[in-house]
Amino acid sequence: MIRALIGVLIAAIVAAFMRAVIGMISREVSDTLNPKAAAPQPPPSPSQAALRKCPVCGTYSPGDYCSDLCRDKAK
Predict the structure, then answer these.
(1) Does the reported pTM lie above 0.70?
(2) Domain residues of the chain, as ranges?
């Protein structure tokens, strides 16, 4: 009985180890074959991240209003 439990425990440890090794190998092969997908993407530039819709005319711009004219119309 104890011998069977030890056998199952060893088999589970070996299976987990083999799964980890196969996962590392497949990731390395995938990164080698498709390097652009593996490279982290650069964060968006501040001008892309901060675009807001002008409440007056609907144009997207880095500030709250697209121009001084629209800012004056909103006041």
Answers:
(1) no
(2) 1-41, 42-75
pLDDT at 17 over 90: yes
From CA 43, how far away is CA 21, in angstroms rounded?
Answer: 32
Check residue 40 and report its DSSP letter: P
Distance of alpha carbon 66 from the chain centroid = 31
How far, in Å, CA of 19 to CA of 12, rounded? 10
Buried b (16+ CB within 10 A) or exposed e, 17-42: eeeeeeeeeeeeeeeeeeeeeeeeee
Residue pLDDT, tens place only, 46-69: 655 578 889 999 988 888 888 899
Q: Biggest alpha carbon distance in the chain?
A: 86
